[in-house]
Amino acid sequence: MIQVGIIGGSGYTAGELLRLLVHHPEVKLDFVYSTTNAGVPIHKQHPDLIGEIDLKFTDTINPNVDVLFLCLGHGRSRSFLETHTFSKMTKVIDLGNDFRLNDDQELLGRDFVYGLPELEKEKIRSAKNIANPGCFATAIQLGLLPLAFAGKLKDTIHINATTGSTGAGVMPGGTTHFSWRDNNFSSYKVFSHQHLGEIKQSLKQEQHDFEAPIFFIPNRGNFSKGIYATMYTQYEGSEEEAKELYTSYYKKAEFTVVSDEEIHLKQVVNTNKCILHISKKNGMLLITSVIDNLIKGASGQAIHNMNLMLGLKEKTGLELKASAF
Q1: In terms of residue numbers, what domain contains 53?
Q2: 122 and 155, same structural domain?
Q3: Nearest 10 degrees: CA dihedral of 164, 132, 190, 73?
Q4: Is 274 a catalytic residue?
Q5: Predicted model pTM
Q6: Catalytic residue (choose from 135, 139, 147, 287)
Q7: Are residues 118 and 47 part of one domain?
Q8: Residue 180: burial class (beta carbons within 10 Å; 0-12, 13-18, 19+)
Q9: Fewer Cβ in 10 A, N or C end of the chain?
């Protein structure tokens, strides 16, 4: 069995990771590290796991686990790895943003690979350390990468994407309070979201001459889980040509599919799927992308990366079904 440790176990991302790992047929949870909850049963923090996991949070670490997931929040993974030593055989998957950009992907002899399987599958298979993509970045990149691969991104890209409240993390705040979020809608970090760096990096990797401006408006939705993203840009080809481009690009992707019908969030919430819809209107190619922000946008993608790194079938532990209601 694969021995797994989790660093930072109390947040939404760690909770989703635990829900998936306890049912993964090849995994044994070794420890879940949390200094603030040490000694507390995990199901006290994640009540839905009662009866499924009997571990307690701990403030001690087994440095020899096979796989280590970092769920520490953005900006904290680097300092943690600088002050804690793990076996050279331990594979690290960071769910924060510390190692996503090329200039940041080296630390104390550890080289990180950007963990978007649809883009870097072969590199992930041989990697020892993974920088898991951001949730918005996942939905948006999957919507644009086929165009970049074909060298078709020549004009301004407009993106409007809405995420559920879990995207803001477990710590309460003014814009996550139920009475503020319910029956409400707002934008934030307009044109300056932190995921733009990794999006541009991946697009330029596929299309070396990519220099088109990206205008990204992130929104807060009044629902808990999911991202609904729309992207549009000038496109000279036909709608049929674009659809063929997308279906060809993702023909070997286990979790990303192109739909002929218009799509909605309930098709992907509680799954590791990304569903795309392509249409052309008034010279613009419109791409719609939907994912679960905590699964495909975080914990499910991290497990997909683990499966690739360990030579397991990609869907192991991730054969999840959406609810129609």
Answers
A1: 2-132+296-309
A2: no
A3: 70
A4: no
A5: 0.96
A6: 135
A7: yes
A8: middle
A9: C
